């Protein structure tokens, strides 16, 4: 208990660091993921190829390697002097975007062909078909995988802590260097992560309930 | 691509528009790539000497050694995690409530702790002194064991109830039902998911970098830092080389998963033992739907 009370400020900083990293990277991942998924299902071959490459390369690269690129290559070659938080968000966000893109794409694929055909047959325009028929159904099947992707993202942000970002992993390192008992630190850090992952889980449960329809 | 929910087969107008988009998109992407290449060129990263380091036998041996130690951890963690997963899954499906609860708590707990936190705690010595390698192997085993256990459980649950009832009716004991009816079918149904979780295991061996285990990434950093060529550190070059190694390893495994999936889906109920075909008419396991909760989606077709 003392470990927590003595270092409350540190713990709060670490918790907020992890939370903030998760939220910002999740936003980046969703925006990029939707864009890439759009590329992958578009009728334009170069964009499709780019989307496929993006997903395959990022999904098959270890996150640690991406962090290595973000922290040792990007500042040296492309953008000198970028904040380490931005670099961490980019690494996590880019990595997660490939999973989001795949989830969105397979969500779209679950909508049966007949739905779109029927929509066109009763005279709906392209926008109407998308807005009223295809996208609502696709969204419903994208929500569950997205929840596990974001939980994975929360856990992945721990790698950022190893690269000089203040987050829960970073705090764990600091405290264990200060000589506190690792078992006790471990319990508190774990609790921090559990709070975030369960919050995400609950949020998506709610979202899923809200979108639920009787079929 | 002509059959899609998103758009109809393009007519002349749409074909023209797609052509315009293609050209604009290509130009945009080419510009992006050209810009990155220009920046690399500008910083002198394309100089031949920087790439020349990979011609030295010493560096090549380093890479090979690192690759082997990555593969060693992967092999150990892969085998241990699968064994551990079977144990956990059996405990999770046990008829005894306390055993079941312990398994549920264990699985849920370690699935929601970041692997890095577990590995670090093991390395620092939560269970006594441990070398980086064993901390890494044990961490990977615990985490992936939990994930694989859930995958297996989904597989066991996909076996129709009638089969278990039939097996009991034949007089098989609980162990026999589990070992000879449930698990073989569960493994077969879930093989693609199991393999794609192994891809995640392989990628996660790179966390060894953080606890100073000399695997691929760690040696990439060493090479990049210790062999400056004319005052320039070959970071970009080593990252490209090691990235290619990782990507090809993972793609090979992912390809294996796809191959197994295709092979499994060719015959309706997977690899049906001869003579058992009629019995398994109804058994056709649905295509696995589980997400690798470790963050990786199983490669979708």
TrEMBL record, chain A:
GO cellular component, one term: ATP-binding cassette (ABC) transporter complex
GO molecular function, one term: transmembrane transporter activity
Keywords, comma-separated and alphabetical: Amino-acid transport, Cell membrane, Membrane, Transmembrane, Transmembrane helix, Transport
Transmembrane annotation, as ranges: 20-41, 53-73, 85-104, 182-200
The keyword Transport appears for this protein: yes
Membrane topology: Multi-pass membrane protein
Domain (ABC transmembrane type-1) ranges: 15-204
GO annotation, biological process: amino acid transport
Keyword Thylakoid: no
Any Pfam family: BPD_transp_1
PROSITE patterns, sorted: ABC_TM1
Compartment annotation: Cell membrane
Domain of life: Bacteria
Family from the record: Belongs to the binding-protein-dependent transport system permease family. HisMQ subfamily.
Listed name of the protein: Amino acid ABC transporter permease
From TrEMBL, chain B:
Gene3D superfamilies in the cross-refs: MetI-like
Origin: domain of life: Bacteria
CDD domains: TM_PBP2
Gene Ontology molecular-function annotations: transmembrane transporter activity
Region named Disordered: 281-301
SUPFAM superfamilies, per database record: MetI-like
UniProt feature, compositional bias: Low complexity: 282-301
Protein's name in the database: Glutamate transport system permease protein
Source lineage: Bacteria, Bacillati, Actinomycetota, Actinomycetes, Kitasatosporales
């Amino acid at each position: 208990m003392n470990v927590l009370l003595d270092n409350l400020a540190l713990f709060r900083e670490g918790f907020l660091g992890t939370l903030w990293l998760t939220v910002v990277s999740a936003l980046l991942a969703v925006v990029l993921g939707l864009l890439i998924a759009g590329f992958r299902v578009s009728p334009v071959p170069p964009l499709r190829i780019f989307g496929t490459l993006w997903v395959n390369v990022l999904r098959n690269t270890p996150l640690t390697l991406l962090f290595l690129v973000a922290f040792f290559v990007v500042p040296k070659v492309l953008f000198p002097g970028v904040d380490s938080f931005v670099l961490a968000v980019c690494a996590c966000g880019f990595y997660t975007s490939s999973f989001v893109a795949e989830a969105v794409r397979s969500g779209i694929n679950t909508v049966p062909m007949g739905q779109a055909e029927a929509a066109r047959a009763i005279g709906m325009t392209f926008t109407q078909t998308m807005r009223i028929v295809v996208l609502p159904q696709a969204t419903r099947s994208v929500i569950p995988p997205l929840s596990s992707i974001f939980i994975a993202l929360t856990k992945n942000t721990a790698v950022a802590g190893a690269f000089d970002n203040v987050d829960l992993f970073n705090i764990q390192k600091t405290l264990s260097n200060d000589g506190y008992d690792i078992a006790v630190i471990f319990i508190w850090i774990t609790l921090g992560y559990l709070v975030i992952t369960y919050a995400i889980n609950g949020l998506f449960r709610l979202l899923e309930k809200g979108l639920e329809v009787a079929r | 691509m002509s059959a899609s929910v998103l758009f109809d087969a393009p007519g002349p107008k749409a074909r023209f528009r797609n052509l315009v988009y293609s050209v604009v998109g290509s130009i945009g992407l080419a510009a992006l790539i050209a810009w990155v290449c220009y920046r690399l060129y500008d910083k002198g990263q394309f100089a031949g000497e920087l790439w020349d380091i990979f011609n030295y036998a010493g560096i090549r041996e380093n890479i090979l050694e690192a690759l082997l130690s990555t593969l060693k951890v992967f092999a150990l963690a892969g085998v241990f995690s699968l064994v551990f997963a079977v144990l956990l899954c059996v405990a999770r499906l046990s008829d005894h409530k306390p055993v079941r609860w312990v398994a549920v708590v264990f699985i849920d707990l370690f699935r929601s702790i970041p692997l890095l936190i577990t590995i670090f705690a093991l390395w620092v010595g939560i269970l006594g002194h441990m070398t980086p390698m064993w901390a890494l192997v044990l961490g990977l085993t615990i985490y992936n064991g939990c994930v694989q256990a859930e995958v297996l459980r989904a597989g066991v649950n996909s076996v129709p109830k009638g089969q278990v009832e039939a097996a009991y009716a034949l007089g098989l004991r609980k162990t026999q039902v589990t070992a000879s009816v449930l698990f073989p079918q569960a493994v077969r149904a879930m093989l693609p998911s199991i393999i794609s979780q192994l891809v995640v295991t392989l990628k996660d061996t790179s966390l060894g970098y953080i606890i100073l285990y000399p695997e691929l990434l760690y040696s990439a950093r060493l090479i990049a830092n210790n062999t400056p060529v004319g005052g320039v550190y070959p970071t970009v070059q080593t990252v490209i080389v090691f990235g290619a190694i990782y990507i090809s390893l993972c793609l090979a495994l992912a390809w294996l998963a796809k191959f197994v999936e295709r092979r499994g889906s060719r015959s309706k109920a997977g690899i049906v033992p001869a003579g058992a075909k009629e019995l398994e008419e109804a058994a056709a396991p649905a295509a696995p739907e589980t997400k690798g909760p470790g963050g990786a989606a199983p490669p979708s077709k």
